[in-house]
C-alpha cells in the first residue's frame, strides 16, 4: 500500500516537473513573437521583441506608464489609446473602462500583449516621467507596520514634483520573489527639498515590494524609482479644505501641508487622521508645527479603539464620525482624501451628506 502511494506521488511529481519544463520552453520560444514595431503618437517608433505586455515593453524602453498595481490588472491606471493592433478588448479590462473610453480605443497597457506592430497614443506628460537612481538614506519606524523611507537622488540629482503626486518604486527579484515589480507610493516630502524623496510605506502581509522594503532594504542601498505621476494636487481656490487620511495615506497630505507652509497659503484647513489605536498615530509633533506655521490649520487625530491605558481624550470612533461631529456644513469646502477604498467611499458619502459637491472631492485611493 505504502509503495503504491509512493509510486503515485513520484509519477505525479514527474508529470508536474515535465509540465513546468514545457511551460518554460513555451514561454521562451512560443512567447517570442519576433520583432514588432510600436508607433507612438504617430511620431516615434520603437523596435521591440513581441511577446510581453505593452506596459512592460514601454517600461523596458524607459517610457513609464502609471501602473500602481505593478501590472496585475487591478488598478486601472495604465490606460492609453491603442489605435492599431493590440487584439480584442479582454474581460480583465472591461471593468475599468467607460463606454466613452471603449469607443475611443482606450486599453489597459498591462493587459495588451504585443504580438505584432501596434500604434498607440500617450499623453505628452508621460514623456516627462524620469527614472531616478537613488540611495536609501534613512529608514524611520513610525508605527509597528509603517515606516518612512528617505531616498537621496543620485541620477538625476533633483526631482520636480507637485505635492500629491506619486512615484513607482522598483523591487528587484530577491529571496522571496523571482518577479521584478514596480509599486506606486505617494511622495510625502517637502517639494522644496528636491534632492530627496520621502515615502511612507505600510507593510502589506506577503506584499512583494513592502516585504522587500521592510526586511531587505538597508540604509546605503541603491534603488530605482520613476515618476512623478498623478493629478492629485491642491486646487488654487480659496475654499476651506477638509483633509481625511488614514495610515500611510498621511504621505500626500503631509507633502501638501509643506506646500501650504512654503507658499504661505492662508486657506482654512482641517486634517482628520484616523487610526485604530493611539500607538498607530504618528508625526504628531510635525502636525503641531504645521498648526503653528499655518494661518488656520487644525489637526484632528481620531482613534477608533483606544486602549484604556492609552488615556486617550481626543476624538474616537471612525474618522468619518469625527468629521460629522465637527463639520456642520461642507457646501463651500473642498476635500482631499487618501486611504483605503473603504475609507474613501465612506468619506465621500459623509461629505456629500454635509453638502459638499462631488466635483470638490479629490482623492487618492490605494489600489
Ligand atoms: S498596471 Fe494595469 S491595471 Fe494596474
UniProtKB/TrEMBL annotation:
EC number, as in UniProt: 1.6.5.-
Domain 2Fe-2S ferredoxin-type positions: 36-126
Keywords of the record: FAD, Flavoprotein, Iron, Oxidoreductase, Transport
Domain of life per record: Bacteria
Keyword hit for NADP: no
UniProt key word Flavoprotein: yes
Protein name: Na(+)-translocating NADH-quinone reductase subunit F
Gene: nqrF
Pfam families, per the entry: FAD_binding_6, Fer2, NAD_binding_1
Lineage: Bacteria, Pseudomonadati, Planctomycetota, Phycisphaerae, Sedimentisphaerales
Residue span(s) of domain FAD-binding FR-type: 129-235
Any one GO MF annotation of this record: iron-sulfur cluster binding
CDD domains documented for this protein: fer2
